[in-house]
Amino acid sequence: MQLNAYPLELMADFEVAVHTSSFPNSFIVPCLFHLSQSVFRKITDLGFKEKYNKDSEFCLKIRCFSTLSFLVIEDVEEVYEELIDDEEIPAEFIAYYDLNYIGVVRERGARRRKPPRFLIAVWNVNQRILLDLPRTNNTAEEFHSAIKRSAGGEHLNIWKLIKTLKEVEGFVQGKITQVL
Q1: Of 60, 170, 172, 180, which one has the fewest beta carbons inside 10 Å?
Q2: CA atoms in the 13 A half-sphere facing the CB of 137
């Protein structure tokens, strides 16, 4: 039996190194939660955390940037242009979003953009929704938390990990039997 060391698809957060080198033959799907988190972090880094927390209208406007991921890919750039047309959106935030998620405009007045660090097709979840695929890595995070709780800590020796994984396997097999 030969194991496939390269899964077809991996879900990760927005780390350029993961997207470029770790699994070159796999399609990297960024986690939607991490997209939203990166938006909030940038707003915080730019000094707008208090405004974000206290001004509900500003907060809603900023949160709209994460919701671009739900649109049909062909509509993302047009809706983005409408969002950044608002004078309340900080220019530094727009520059960040351009560079990372939409693409920087090539020349003044031009509609063409350079490719962003993360292509729209990579972070867009519209098709994942239609195909009923996960948009976040919550299930993996929950599994890891359950393993840590079951094992009684984070730093396990190999034998404790194997014992815990066997217990989890038994639990999962029991659940499968109940369903069948």
Answers
A1: 180
A2: 16
